[in-house]
Amino acid sequence: MEKTCIDALPLTMNSSEKQETVCIFGTGDFGRSLGLKMLQCGYSVVFGSRNPQKTTLLPSGAEVLSYSEAAKKSGIIIIAIHREHYDFLTELTEVLNGKILVDISNNLKINQYPESNAEYLAHLVPGAHVVKAFNTISAWALQSGALDASRQVFVCGNDSKAKQRVMDIVRNLGLTPMDQGSLMAAKEIEKYPLQLFPMWRFPFYLSAVLCVFLFFYCVIRDVIYPYVYEKKDNTFRMAISIPNRIFPITALTLLALVYLPGVIAAILQLYRGTKYRRFPDWLDHWMLCRKQLGLVALGFAFLHVLYTLVIPIRYYVRWRLGNLTVTQVNLFLYIFFCS
Ligand SMILES: NC(=O)C1=CN([C@@H]2O[C@H](COP(=O)(O)OP(=O)(O)OC[C@H]3O[C@@H](n4cnc5c(N)ncnc54)[C@H](OP(=O)(O)O)[C@@H]3O)[C@@H](O)[C@H]2O)C=CC1
Ligand SMILES: [Fe+3]
């Protein structure tokens, strides 16, 4: 299981560090957004580009040089380039020696490459201290301010001093660094942007399968069976009664699944005679999504409450309609016989 820790904010801001020069390689979307944010926060920014003369839309106040010239200007270089184009960095190994390289890249697919992008960068430029950061922050979020986006920046790296310097920059930009440990954690960090609702998938699929199964079971039992054997039309039940039976069953089943892994884990620990051994992956994953399972169960229970409240209202409306018909018939008979 991954370990996270929130670093305490420094009590005093080191003003000399705010004047630090930071180099950004790449003048694309992300490089420009990060550069602008850094300038706003008091850093001086030097961009490295293939075509320093032709670059447009760069934040004013930033300098643009060739990659090798820009690298000479700062000890920290943020690589705002896609991994596929990292090759040219091998030509700069000399100038990048001993510098901090911040890898911010993401991939299009999980496990697209055998090693993480950050580890690949460290392999290309062995003399540099590679730190992974910023990959979960989008260029758009940087521009629109951190308020409406995630403020967490996951940071990892093998050199603790380099990591601290990057975390200081993160803090100065108004974001929250989360130390994730060594560069080995980069693979995990690179997965975050590609995981949509990571722990919710299993509970959603499970509840969908349960609902569909129970729905067909109830339709066969309450609609098809009476129709075939008694010629009774019960299709109206499919709207309220059958869903209202499915919701509590699903809620209770999911609730049972919230408690079950804890029991299995306890039995496993008793059987193994120790609690210091890793659980199997399936159990680990199951334990981790208990909160989500519980919340989905709560959602179904809430639907059950709503539907249960709807049923008396339906009876009341039916009673009102029935009552109205009786009144009208009485009125008709009265008029008919009295005239
Ligand atoms: N956009 C986003 O919201 C986020 C992006 N990222 C990561 O940031 C990195 C950059 O993304 P983004 O700015 O969107 O990408 P862009 O395509 O907009 O920019 C990439 C830049 O890389 C430079 N580059 C260097 N070598 C090459 C080459 N051979 N071919 C093409 N470009 C080259 C170019 O700068 P120049 O022309 O000056 O040399 C180019 O502008 C990626 O790794 C991405 O995964 C991470 C989080 C969010
Ligand atoms: Fe009930």
Automatic annotation (TrEMBL):
GO terms for molecular function: metal ion binding; oxidoreductase activity. It is found in: Endosome membrane. The chain crosses the membrane at residues 204-229, 249-271, 292-313. Residues 21-107 form the Pyrroline-5-carboxylate reductase catalytic N-terminal domain. Its cofactor is heme b; FAD. SUPFAM superfamilies: NAD(P)-binding Rossmann-fold domains. It catalyses: 2 Cu(+) + NADP(+) + H(+) = 2 Cu(2+) + NADPH; 2 Fe(2+) + NADP(+) + H(+) = 2 Fe(3+) + NADPH. GO terms for biological process: iron ion transport. It comes from the Eukaryota. GO terms for cellular component: endosome membrane; nucleoplasm; plasma membrane. Keywords: Copper, Endosome, FAD, Flavoprotein, Heme, Ion transport, Iron, Iron transport, Membrane, Metal-binding, Oxidoreductase, Transmembrane, Transmembrane helix, Transport. It is a multi-pass membrane protein. Belongs to the STEAP family. This is STEAP4 metalloreductase.
